[in-house]
Amino acid sequence: MIRISLRTVAVAATAAAGVLSLTGTASASGTPARPVPTGHKALTRNPLYSAGAFETSRCTEPARRAGDLTTFRAYLDALFGCLRRTWSEEFHRAGLRFSPPRVRYITKGVYTGCTQYMASYLAGQYCPKNTTMWVLLDKEALSDPTGFDLFTVVTHEYGHYAQDRAGILAEFDRQSAKAGGKREADLNRRIELQAECFSGAFVGSVWRSLGRDRLDWDEQLKWVVGDRWHGTTRNIRYWLKRGWYGRGPQVCDTFSAPASRVA
Ligand SMILES: [Zn+2]
Fold first, then answer.
1. How many angstroms separate the alpha carbon of residue 13 from the centre of ligand 1?
2. How many whole angstroms from 10 Cα to the centroid of ligand 1?
3. What string of DSSP letters covers 73-126?
4. CB–CB of 256/44 below 8 Å?
5. Distance from Cα 151 to the centre of ligand 1, integer Å
6. Spatial separation of the C-alpha atoms in residues 97 and 21, rounded to whole Å
7. Partners of 103 in the beta sheet?
8. How far is CA 63 from CA 31, 70, 145, 261, in A?
9. Structural domain boundaries of the chain?
10. Neighbouring residues of 22: CB distance < 8 A, sequence distance ≥ 6
11. How far is the CA of 8 from the centre of ligand 1 (A)?
12. What is the pLDDT of residues 128-178, one digit of tens each?
């Protein structure tokens, strides 16, 4: 339930937000970075799709203590470090520039720049307007020191951040603004299912190093509930698994997928 509500709001925010556009300049290593792709090819022929599987495969989860904000922050700091490493390598191989998002941990509802409040059903959100990842660490979130939900909420939202940096969100916004009805919902499902695939790919790539039981992943798949804006339950599971087994964004081109896969 947490995950689904979260996505609904995150998507509304994404669709409404103006997205930064980046220009191609020299990257840190001195190699000229490609300009961020624009137009329909940003969705269907994005350089991220040819960068191969994720390289880094190690990530650990620091122990958390129930009710202890400090340990939860350390847990998330570690996760954001893993995501930054994995995605910056991937962008580098794709020839695209990358820098990590801002991260804000909050303990109660605030205005994020994209939505008015983050209530307890809204565990996390990426807001493109301020390129910030917002994570809610309220009483309820702090009550579960072993769960895997927080991890996958963050990896999903980071998927939206990757879409933003790769020019995918900007083109999505442009096309969504002109679309209506069925086409708008179709585009929304494609952007959401891609974030699921990116999330599955990241989790799959670091899974062994996490030392978790396979059941933790199966649980994530089990609790998926689909809707018109996010895809059927079956398709959400399909893209999560496809990412998991593919270990990288090369298997996540939901924009070229047949309609049945993004229904
Ligand atoms: Zn989402």
1. 10
2. 6
3. HHHHHHHHHHHHHHHHHHHHHHT----PPEEEEESS----SSSS---TT--EEE
4. yes
5. 14
6. 12
7. 133
8. 39, 11, 8, 38
9. 2-19+53-262
10. 35, 36, 97, 165, 167
11. 7
12. 999 999 999 999 999 999 999 999 999 999 999 999 999 999 999 999 999
Give the distance (Å) from ligand 1 centre to CA of residue 55: 24
| 1 CA from centroid of ligand 1 (Å) | 14
Q: 29 C-alpha to center of ligand 1: Å?
A: 32
Amino acid at 196: E
- Sign of the dihedral through C-alpha 90, 252, 248, 163: positive
What digits encode the pLDDT tens for the residues 50-78? 999 999 789 999 999 999 999 999 999 99
C-alpha 156 to ligand 1 mean position (Å):
6
Nearest Cα to Cα of residue 197 among 161, 149, 250: 250
CB 2 within 8 A of CB 123: yes
Neighbouring CB atoms inside 10 A of 2's CB total: 17
Which candidate, 129, 123, 126, places its Cα nearest to that of 143?
A: 123
Kindly report, residue by residue over 239-251, the tens digit of the pLDDT: 999 999 999 999 9
| Ligand 1 center from residue 150 Cα (angstroms) | 14
Beta strands in the chain (DSSP E): 102-106, 124-127, 132-136
Q: What is the pLDDT of residue 31?
A: 61
Give the distance (Å) from ligand 1 centre to CA of residue 200: 13
Reference 191, options 5, 7, 4, 1; nearest CA is 7
Tracing tokens 């989860």 back to the chain, one arrives at 61
